[in-house]
Amino acid sequence: MMSLLASAAASLTLAAQPAPPAADAPQLSLEQTTGLRCGVAFALVAQGQQAGDPAALAYPAMDPRGKEFFVRFMAALMEDPRFSRDLVTSLAMRETQELARGGPEALSAVMPACLQLLDLSGL
User: Fold this and answer.
1) What's the number of CA atoms in the CB half-sphere (13 Å) around residue 20?
2) How far is Cα 107 from Cα 102, in angstroms, rounded to an integer?
3) pLDDT tens column, 41-66
4) Is 52 left (phi over 0), alpha (psi -120 to 50) or beta?
5) pLDDT per residue over 85-104, tens digit each?
6) Do 74 and 90 meet the contact criterion of CB atoms below 8 Å apart?
7) How many Cα atoms occupy the beta-carbon half-sphere of 21 within 13 Å?
8) Helix 85-101, helix 103-121: angle, nearest 10
9) pTM beyond cutoff 0.85
10) 83 HSE (CA, 13 A, CB side)
């Protein structure tokens, strides 16, 4: 799955830059940064879809595929010995804040590449 992340990484890098990690935190690879960004984007869209948000409902249903992507990616990241559960949670929260701060435009900028990645993931 990580090679699939690389294919979407270039599009996402141009669309929205990731939040810088804390100075003492291990660096995420480009594939990990992309997976985190897409996982969080899927979670935000799923939340919006559950709330009946028309903008979120314009995307394909995120339950169960987008949610499963998020869960699998987060579990894989936590399996990396460099990342604690708390660090992964912190990174996800930071990414959530970054996308939320950018408003609907930030989410709509990353979703096309993320949806392509979701399709490529086989979920």
Assistant:
1) 3
2) 8
3) 999 999 999 999 999 999 999 989 99
4) left
5) 899 999 999 999 999 898 88
6) no
7) 17
8) 130
9) no
10) 21
